[in-house]
Amino acid sequence: MAEENSIEHVKCLIIGSGPAGYTAAIYAARANLKPVLYTGMQMGGQLTTTTEVENFPGYPEGVTGPVMMEDMRKQAERFGTDIRFGVADEVDFTGSLHKVRIDGEKWIEADAVIIATGATAKYLGIPAEEKFKGVGVSACATCDGFFYRGKDVAVVGGGDTACEEATYLAGICNKVYLIVRKPYLRASKAMQEKVNKTPNIEVLFEHNTKDLFGTDMGLEGARLIYKMGTPEEKEHDIKIDGFFLAIGHTPNTEVFKKYIHTDGQGYILTEGRSSRTNVPGVFAAGDVMDPDYRQGITSAGAGCRAAIDAERYLTERC
Ligand code: FAD
To answer: Do 104 and 30 have their domain in common?
Structure first.
C-alpha cells in the first residue's frame, strides 16, 4: 500500500459513471458530501454503447445513450462532483476509513463508498456479434425489443432469463426462436410452461449459433448447427432481424469480493430495500447489485438510494 501521508481523504467516493454512479453523485453533491467519482474504463457506462433510449422518463422524443449520459455527467458536475478518469483496482475495507486504489498507484480513503460498477453482458464470442451490435444484436430484450415489433427474432439461452426474454419478445414480435444448446431448458418449471404455452415461440433444442449474416443495413439471419459434434450434425439458416443474447451477465465485483458479500453469480448483496452492504459505510447501486431489472431507470433509482443511505450513515457517525 502507498505511504499513509500520500493518501487522499474524501468524504464520499463513487466508483462508476453509469446511471447509478451519476445519480448517486447528483444526490451526494447536493447533500454537500463533496463526492469524488471515478469513471472506470467506460465513461457513461453501458448506455454509451447503444443508440436510441426510448424508455427513460423525461425524454419524450427519445435520446441516444451517449447524449443521455453526457447530460447526467453535466448535471453531476453542476453541483460540484469531482469526476475523474480512473479504475479502482484494489480495496481495503478493514478499517472505518475505506481505502481504494486507483490505477495501481493512487490510494484514496473515504468515509463512505458507493459501488456502481455495473454488470457486463456475456456474448457468444463470434465476430459477427460485434459487427451487428446495435443493428440486430442486443443483450437486452426489455431495452431493444420494441425496435423489432412485428419481426422475427431469436433469443439465445436456456435459463430463466432467456425464457423470460423470449416470452417478453413474443408479445411484441411476429416469431421468436429460442436457441438452446442442451436438449432441455434449465429454466424453472413455471417459466418452461410459459414458453411452451406461447404459440409464437419455437424452441430449437441442441442448436448452436455458428454465425450471423446480413448487410450494412442490419441483420438478416443466423446460421445454426444442430447436434454439433455428433454424426447427426447439420447446418441450417433462420431468417431473423434481431438476435438477443440471454446467456448471463458478469457483475463487475471482482475487486470488492474479498470484503463485500456477493451472491452465487457475483452480484453484491444489500440489506433489505437499502443499498447497505455487509461493510458499514460501503453501499452498492445499479446493475452491480441487481440481477433482476438491470435498466437505466432502476439503476438511477438505486444510485439515489445509495447517496441518501450514505448521507444518513455519515450524519449518524458525526
Ligand atoms: P453501468 O452503466 O454498467 O456503468 C458501470 C460503470 O462502472 C461504468 O462507467 C464503468 O466504467 C464503471 N466501472 C466498472 N468497473 C470499474 C472499476 N473497477 N473502477 C471504476 N469504475 C468502474 N437500459 C434502459 O433503461 N433503456 C435502454 O434502452 C437500454 N438499452 C441498453 C442497450 C444495451 C446495448 C445495453 C448493454 C444495456 C442497455 N440498457 C438499457 C441497460 C442499462 O444500460 C443498464 O441497466 C445501466 O447502464 C446500468 O447502470 P449502472 O450505473 O448500474 O452500470
So the answer is: yes
- Of the residues 143, 163, 173, 304, which is catalytic? 143
Residue 296 CA to ligand 1 centre (angstroms): 7
Residue 12 falls in the annotated catalytic set:
no
Q: What is the pLDDT of residues 62-92, one digit of tens each?
A: 999 999 999 999 999 999 999 999 999 999 9
Let me know whether 155 and 235 are in one domain: yes
Cβ of 157 less than 6 Å from ligand 1: no
Annotated catalytic residue within 71, 82, 92, 140: 140
Burial of 151 (0-12, 13-18, 19+ CB in 10 A): middle
- Phi, psi at 283, each rounded to 5°: -120, 160
CA distance 99 to 245: 37
Q: Do 197 and 280 reside in the same domain of the chain?
A: no
Give the domain extent around 209.
Answer: 123-245
- Verify whether residue 318 is a known catalytic residue: no
Cβ–ligand 1 contact at 63 (below 6 Å): no
Is the pLDDT assigned to residue 1 strictly greater than 60? no
User: Residue 174: which CATH number?
Assistant: 3.50.50.60
304 is catalytic: no
Number of separate domains in the chain: 2
Question: Do residues 288 and 261 make contact, with C-beta atoms less than 8 angstroms apart?
Answer: no
Distance CA 261, CA 14 (A): 18
Q: What is the pLDDT of residues 243-280, one digit of tens each?
A: 999 999 999 999 999 999 999 999 999 999 999 999 99
How much distance in Å is there from the Cα of 231 to the middle of ligand 1? 43
For residues 254 and 110, state if they share a domain: yes
Read off the pLDDT of residues 177-222 as tens digits, 9 standing for 90 and up. Answer: 999 999 999 999 999 999 999 999 999 999 999 999 999 999 999 9
Question: Which residue, judged by its Cα, is nearest atom 25 of ligand 1?
Answer: 296
Single out the residue in 192, 221, 245 at which a domain terminates: 245
* Over residues 127-142, mean pLDDT: 93
Is the four-CA dihedral 198, 199, 200, 206 of positive or negative sign?
positive
